[in-house]
Amino acid sequence: MNVLSGTLSKVRMAVVVLLWAIPAAAIGPADAQPAPTLKIVATTSLIAEIVADVGGDAVEIAVLIPPASCPGHFDIKPGDMRMLADAHLFFLHSWQGRMFSDGIVRASGNHGLRKVAIDVPGNWMTPSAQIAATERIAALLTEIDPTRAASYRAAALRRIAAVERVGSAQSQRMAAAKAPPAGVMANAMQADFVRWAGLQVVGEFGRGEDMSPRDIEEAIRLGRSLAVRLVVDNLQSGKQVGIGVAKEIGAAHVTLSNFPGGFEGTETWAKAIERNVDLLVTAIGR
User: Fold this and answer.
1) What's the half-sphere exposure (Cβ side, CA atoms, 13 Å) at 37?
2) 31, 49, 68, 165: which is deepest, by most CB within 10 A?
3) Dihedrals φ, ψ of 15, to 5°?
């Protein structure tokens, strides 16, 4: 059974409005000339890596936000507008819709550019969300460029199988690490991943600029009262809060990344999740 079939019906109406933006050859009959390369700008490396893997030679992908930067706090620059001016499609996470408004698309001067908000909930570093995102992006590419549908579907199946293998291997590593019974405090952006890793999240905290002194004091009080032994920060959110809380309560501290490429040598999801697990296993063993 095709694992993408359940997703296609959900995105069909959302994608049909994009078709006019792609040259006619890209949406013609099956015996038409091959579609031209799709130029796609993605807001994050999470989207871009899936697009590149599923799209292969059929796509040309550019990433807007550096992977170590916060994707929710980004100021678009003239060079970014030039990327949008030359693209067919602009892929972003659904939660970025307000940041990248239709006004920005219009300001690029590219009247054929279509913005596509990809609505896949959860932390995309977890295998389940990574698989759902792969299915969604493959469905979008298939609808936009049906002449290459078989290629997109085959690539998506290969990627999903790889994600399942990698996810299973990393989950087994976490199980073997034998996490201590004490709970973990985590940055809200890492909480889902930490739970996937088999750790008990007993408290969450946000970005430093979003927290008042009272919020930080409450996080310290909670950590002490629950005898928290590990504080997990998010690279893209900054480390100040987590480091401060860990120091005050005498807990170990570790910083994970939510995006491929956030740490050097982690340009793929597989390498990024492996690095995150490396860091967690080391922190648990302290």
Assistant:
1) 11
2) 49
3) -90, -25
Domain boundaries, the chain: 5-169, 178-284
Please give, one letter per residue, the 3-state secondary structure of 100-149.
CCHHHHHHCCCCCCEEEEECCCCCCCCHHHHHHHHHHHHHHHHHHCHHHH
- In the chain, the largest separation of any two C-alpha atoms, in whole Å, equals 68
Q: What's the rounded Cα separation, in Å, for the pair 118 and 71? A: 14
Token digits of residue 239: 């480390």
CATH architecture of structural domain 5-169: 3-Layer(aba) Sandwich (3.40)
Total-model pTM: 0.84
CATH topology of domain 178-284: Rossmann fold (3.40.50)
- DSSP per residue, 49-104: HHHHHHHGGGEEEEESS-TTS-TTS----HHHHHHHHT-SEEEEEGGGTTTS-HHH
Fold agreement (5-169, 178-284): yes
